[in-house]
Amino acid sequence: MEFDLVVKNGTVVTAQGVYRADVGIRGKHIAAIGEALHGEREIDADGMYVTPGAVDVHVHLEMPIGDFVSTDDFYAGTRAAAFGGTATIIDFVEPAPEETMLEALAALRAKADGKVVIDYGLHMTIGPTEIVKLAQVPAAYEAGCASFKLYMAYGLRLNDGELWQALTAVHNTGGLPVIHAENWDVITTLVAENVANGRTSPHYHPRSRPAKLEGEAAGRAIDIAELVGTRLYVFHVSCGETAARIAAARQRGLPIYGETCPQYLLLDWSLYDRPGVLGALPVCSPPIRAQEEQANLWRALGQNHLQVVSTDHCPFTMAEKESRSANYSQIPGGVPSIEVRFAAVYSQGVRAGHLSLAQWVDVCCTTPARLFGLQSKGEIAIGYDADLVIFDPERERVITPASLHETAGWTLYEGMMLRGWPVVTISRGKVIVENDELLVGPGYGRFIKRRY
Ligand code: DUC
Ligand code: ZN
Ligand code: ZN
Prior knowledge:
Layout lengths: L2 E11 L4 E9 L2 E6 L4 E6 L4 E4 L1 E3 L7 E2 L2 E2 L4 H10 L2 E8 L7 H12 L6 E7 L11 H6 L4 E5 L8 H14 L2 E5 L3 H13 L7 H5 L2 H18 L3 E3 L5 H12 L4 E5 L1 H5 L10 H4 L11 H11 L5 E2 L8 H6 L17 H10 L6 H15 L16 E11 L18 E11 L2 E5 L2 E2 L14
Parallel strand pairs: 1-4, 1-5, 6-9, 9-10, 10-11, 11-12, 12-13, 13-14, 14-15
Antiparallel strand pairs: 1-2, 2-3, 5-16, 7-8, 16-17, 17-18, 18-19
């Protein structure tokens, strides 16, 4: 037989276009795209879309934050991702002050390598204790961490001078800086004022972190990046204010990019007014915004002002959220969507007319792979890794915690009906999800050394 596996009769969706074809796989790679291909195994995808395996460039699995560790470990999180059609994720290395970047990378890989069921990469974090380690940036890059995470908020935040230093070091190495942009000084002042005046319910969480403070910080980071002459990728854009800063920079020809996430596209801040722990669950930063921001973000994606939809998947259990819910500023921040992202962007984005099919694949698969140096991922083309999704555009799914493989036990999308769902996920030529079953064990996934 010419091919090991052929996905037959499907409608191939790529970032460039949509056409009917068979996809022939030999070993781990896509070997042919054409008509009447035959292989040892053939899967009939008539009536289905065939897309690249989706790529989620922003997840936090078993990540320690304060007293807690995010709920999905590298097994559960990648398993949920695989069921949702995601074939590659990128997580984070956060070196401890006494660790080198390479030691921290080795420690993270020791935790993840034996657990992942899909391929994964890692961003290297440059916090304030890494400023003295900037000479290690080239070694981290060579080890496969081609992107570097910088914070303007939390304990890991850099001041503007440190930001300059970090951006310069990453740029000189050829890496991509990625940034959490929020104006921390004003936010902490607003939080302190609220708490001092008894305004401690989650209702005040988004009101302590206004969209303008995200836009201001992103604009400042973009301006510093422009002076350094570097590319910059802005994480979790939650509002039109930030998207406009990115669009204006791109208009000036600058290599600035931005992502948004399902929680900002599909949800609104009325969730913070739900009673009891329900109001605490959506606490994440940047916060979920007023409803009108959803249209701003869909428009920004449609116009290529934003280029990617990732998840920032970082859930905590209901008990953990509840334990700190007396004061919204103490609630561990983060929400899940690693499993629903690809289907949600199709259902609420393509079906609702915000994005074309090609744009859906572009923002969920192709552009994230290209921007993050995943050179063999995100495309259906000869020689690329045979990471494919067979996606049933008519399969309806009402989202409930029990319908998902995420382990938080809750989802903000509960009750939402999505039309369109992945039915088969293929990773490097192997069918890893079929008939609602995971067909590979922990450790099937590989660490990917990324580079540009
Ligand atoms: N924001 C969150 O809410 N959680 C994880 C990290 C982040 O930036
Ligand atoms: Zn962040
Ligand atoms: Zn994050």
